[in-house]
Specification:
Helices cover 36% and strands 20% of the residues. The protein contains 8 helices and 13 strands. The protein binds zinc ion. Zinc ion binds next to loops. Zinc ion is lined by residues 167, 178, 180, 182, 185.
Length: 320
C-alpha cells in the first residue's frame, strides 16, 4: 500500500471544509458540507463521511489515504468526541463521538482535536514553528484559543482540554463578563470581539478625543474598523491596540514562566494587526518578564494562509 495523502477536516461554526493534502502540505482538492444543517451528530457524520468518500473516489485515491485529521470546537483529542460545543446545534448539550462515527463511515482512522491545537500542529508541520519543539500558538479570532507544544508534544492534559489560555483571568476587579460565565478572562480583551468592546468603552471614556470610529454607528464597530483607523493614524485606534497588546504581553509573561517556549506565534484575523499589537506586546514583556526569560522568546505572526492553515493543521494529525 502506497500511502501518500491525508484528509484534513476543519469544522467551523457554519461550514466544514475538507481538503486532500500531500506530504509536502499542498492541498490538492477540497470539498465541504454544512456544519449546522443536521439534527444529530450521527447525521452530520454520515454527510461528512460521504463527502470524504466522494472526494477519494473522484480522485481515484482509494488505498492511498493514510487517515483523517479533524479540528473542531471542543474537540477532545483523548477520546475523539466533541464535548458540548455551544455553537454547534447537534452538540450543544451532548458529547458526540465524532471520530468513531467518521471512521465507521469511511473505514479510515480519524483523529480529532480542537481548532487551536490543530493550528499549532499546522505551524509545526508547515509554518513558523518548523523545527521548534517548544512553542505556543495563540489564535486571535472571535475568541482567543491556544495550542501549547512542549518537548515536541502537544499538551492535552489528562482530560484532553489543557491549554485554554484565553480563559486565564487577567483582570480581577470589574473584569468583563466572558462567554464562559466568569469575569476578566483574557479573551474578553484580546480577541476580535475584545478589541471591538475596547473601542466602544474608549469612545465613552475619552469623549474629547476625535476619532473616525465615532462616525461608525451601525453595524457596530469591528476590530477591522479599528485596524483601518489605526493604519490611517487615528490616535484612539492606536490607543486601543496599545491597551490590547499590553494585556497580551502581560499574559505572555505568565505563559512563558510555565513552559519556556522558543516562540509564541500569533494566528488568526486579529494577528493581521501586526506591529500595532507586537510593539505594545514586546514593550510590556520587557517590563514585566521574569529576568531569567528576558529576550529569549520570539513573538511571531503566522505566515500560513488563513484559509489553508486550518485544513493543514488538522491534516497534520493524520500523519502522526
Ligand atoms: Zn472565560
Amino acid at each position: 500500500m502506497d500511502v501518500q495523502y491525508v484528509i484534513g477536516v476543519d469544522m467551523g461554526g457554519t461550514n466544514t471544509v475538507i481538503g486532500m493534502v500531500d506530504a509536502r502540505g499542498n492541498i490538492l482538492c477540497r470539498s465541504q458540507v454544512s456544519t449546522t444543517d443536521y439534527s444529530t451528530g450521527a447525521e452530520y457524520a454520515e454527510a461528512l463521511g460521504s463527502a470524504i468518500n466522494d472526494l477519494i473516489e473522484q480522485n481515484d485515491l482509494k488505498d492511498k489515504i493514510k487517515g483523517i485529521g479533524m479540528g473542531a470546537p471542543n474537540g477532545n483529542m483523548n477520546d475523539g468526541t466533541i464535548e458540548k460545543a455551544a455553537n454547534i446545534p447537534w452538540a450543544k448539550t451532548v458529547n458526540v463521538p465524532i471520530a468513531a462515527l467518521v471512521t465507521k463511515k469511511t473505514g479510515l482512522p480519524c483523529r480529532l482535536t480542537n481548532d487551536a491545537n490543530a493550528a499549532a500542529l499546522g505551524e509545526m508541520a508547515y509554518g513558523s514553528a518548523k523545527g521548534l519543539k517548544d512553542f505556543i500558538v495563540i489564535t486571535l479570532g472571535t475568541g482567543l484559543g491556544s495550542g501549547i507544544v512542549a518537548g515536541g508534544q502537544l499538551i492535552v492534559g489528562h482530560d484532553g482540554f489543557a491549554g485554554e489560555l484565553g480563559h486565564s483571568i487577567m483582570v480581577r476587579q470589574n473584569g468583563r463578563l466572558c462567554g464562559c460565565g466568569r469575569t476578566g478572562c483574557l479573551e474578553t480583551y484580546a480577541s476580535a470581539t475584545g478589541v471591538a468592546r475596547t473601542a466602544r468603552e474608549f469612545l465613552e471614556l475619552y469623549p474629547e478625543k476625535k476619532s473616525v470610529l465615532r462616525e461608525i454607528a451601525y453595524p457596530p464597530i469591528t476590530s477591522k474598523d479599528v485596524f483601518e483607523a489605526a493604519k490611517a493614524g487615528d490616535e484612539l485606534a492606536l490607543r486601543i491596540f496599545e491597551f490590547t497588546g499590553k494585556i497580551l504581553g502581560a499574559a505572555f509573561c505568565d505563559f512563558i514562566t510555565f513552559s519556556s517556549p522558543q516562540a509564541i506565534i500569533l494566528f488568526g484575523g486579529l494577528a493581521h494587526a501586526g506591529e500595532f499589537l507586537l510593539e505594545p506586546i514586546r514593550k510590556e514583556m520587557e517590563n514585566q518578564i521574569l529576568n531569567i526569560y528576558q529576550g529569549k522568546t520570539k513573538i511571531l505572526i503566522s505566515q500560513l494562509n488563513d484559509a489553508e492553515a486550518a485544513i493543514l493543521g488538522a491534516s497534520a494529525l493524520a500523519w502522526e
